TrEMBL record:
It is found in: Cell membrane. CDD domains: TM_PBP1_LivM_like. The keyword Zinc does not apply. Keywords: Cell membrane, Membrane, Transmembrane, Transmembrane helix. This is Branched-chain amino acid ABC transporter permease. Coiled coil: none annotated. It holds the Pfam family BPD_transp_2. InterPro entries: ABC_transp_permease (IPR001851), LivM-like (IPR043428). The chain crosses the membrane at residues 22-41, 47-68, 75-94, 100-123, 130-151, 176-196, 226-244, 264-287, 299-322.
Length: 331
């Protein structure tokens, strides 16, 4: 049997389901759901805000993992979608449109359009060239945000109210906002997991391994990657919506290349391609960042090398470590 028909059969065949793979994600979401209870029992209230921020970035890291871990596309401009989502939210709230059911369709549509246009250009390239073009588009949006003098420019935009959902002030309390972000994170995780397990996901994963063979079997690799890129951008835009409501502030720094690098670090730290690894990586990254920042004002000098060393000397990130600790079972 030739390689092309064999690959076609692999794509067409349903992926085997392993119950062990669900254990860690279910446990993770259960622990997150219990965080407000832990605060009521004596855990510092600041931890709830920290976990909320971590979950917001977990949505962005999860969206990046779809194209990085599954599709093999290293985007160094992914924070642009985070910033677009935050700015659309901030501008609409400033203009008197605080309803999330109005903001989200506009926000997701703009992110999808930007991803479709830039993705169609970026996906004509490969490797380092792809990385540099995504970086260039990200910086383009960054400087555009700086030029928005009507909405704060380089100083950013302060928000004096939060979004509502169907007229309900669910974001007005820390606990209510926490559970809204948790529900969004769980929904995004289930959506991405379904996509990855579907035929679409198997083609995307196969294109990462050998795009030429996938093309020979009759699949349009560029179109598959573009669809994944658009979905990824929309999910990152959703994270921007929550980030704007969490900080009550929008800044061009949200879409800087440094932020894109942090999202890549979060994904790699948790375990590239494992999906829930992106969530774990984002939470671990922000908790470690917060802990070190309380020790010294020069915490970045310590934090940077620690992250680099961890990535270099661990295989599969945190999820890989948990898998090996569990005797090789799927984590």
């Amino acid at each position: 049997m030739s390689a092309a028909p064999a690959l076609a059969e692999t794509i067409a065949a349903p992926a085997p389901r392993k119950r062990g793979r669900l254990l860690l994600p279910v446990l993770l979401f259960c622990l997150l759901a219990l965080a407000p209870l832990a605060v009521s029992l004596g855990m510092p209230a600041g931890w709830l805000a920290l976990l909320t921020r971590a979950m917001i970035f977990a949505i962005a890291a999860l969206s990046l993992d779809l194209i990085l871990g599954v599709g093999g596309l290293v985007s160094f401009g992914h924070a642009a979608f985070l910033g677009i989502g935050a700015y659309v939210t901030g501008i609409m709230i400033t203009e008197g449109h605080a309803e999330a059911l109005v903001i989200l369709p506009v926000l997701l549509g703009i992110c999808a359009l930007f991803a479709a246009v830039t993705g169609a250009i970026c996906l004509r390239t490969r490797g380092v060239t792809f990385i540099m073009i995504t970086l260039a588009f990200g910086q383009m949006v960054y400087f555009l945000a700086q030029a928005l003098s009507a909405y704060g420019g380089d100083d950013g935009l302060t928000l004096y109210e939060k979004s509502t959902i169907a007229g309900l002030d669910l974001f007005s309390t820390r606990t209510g906002f926490f559970y809204c972000v948790l529900a969004a994170l769980a929904g995004c995780y289930v959506l991405v997991r379904i996509l990855v397990a579907s035929r679409f996901g198997r083609i995307l994963r196969a294109s990462r391994e050998n795009p030429v063979r996938v093309s020979v079997t009759g699949f349009d690799v560029t179109r598959i990657r573009l669809v994944a890129y658009v979905i990824s951008g929309m999910l990152a835009g959703l994270a921007g919506f929550f980030l704007a409501n969490h900080t009550d502030f929008v800044s061009p720094a949200f879409m800087s290349w440094q932020r894109s690098g942090e999202l890549i670090f979060m994904t790699v730290l948790g375990g590239v391609g494992s999906l829930h690894g992106a969530i774990i990586g984002a939470i671990a990254y922000l908790i470690a960042e917060d802990a070190l920042s309380h020790l010294t004002e020069h915490w970045r000098v310590i934090f940077g090398p620690l992250i680099v060393l961890f990535v270099l000397f661990t295989r599969g990130g945190i999820v890989g470590m948990l898998r090996r600790a569990g005797g090789g079972r799927d984590a």
